[in-house]
Amino acid sequence: MSARTKARKRALDILFSADVRGDDLAVTLAAEAKRAASEPAREASWLYAREIVDGIIDSRDEIDEQITTHSRDWKLERMPAVDRALLRIAVWEILFNDEVPTAVAIDEAVELAKEFSTDDSGAFVHGVLARVARAA
User: Fold this and answer.
1) CB contact at 8 A, 105 and 129
2) What pLDDT is recorded for position 6?
3) What one-character-per-residue DSSP string does 14-30 give?
4) What phi and psi, each to the nearest 5 degrees, are found at residue 91?
5) What is the CATH number of the domain that holds 122?
6) Is the pTM of this model over 0.90?
7) How far apart are CA 62 and CA 81, in angstroms?
């Protein structure tokens, strides 16, 4: 598994945890940063995970607007928390990270949705991200 795949999983954990607990994302990120400081072997995945989460914090309104616009009859609040987090990660990568090809961002999100969410989540996440990518 690549360092970026591990980082996406780590970012997913941070986003999901903050969402489910109702905590401020910046506070959850700071707590994870403390923990990461004691795990030098995982530094490569931590750096990209932090970049993702910081990017989502900085551009959350635009990211959420893209998800809402392209999710076809699904309100952001009604989506499973895992799907919401994965969509935020992938939309950030599609719109704000030129180093990650769009197809890779979509494929990674779909695979994580299949692994960690509902049976229908892979197809749902793919559909939303494909529409975001076409509009970008």
Assistant:
1) yes
2) 93
3) HHHHHHHHT--HHHHHH
4) -65, -40
5) 1.10.940.10
6) yes
7) 18
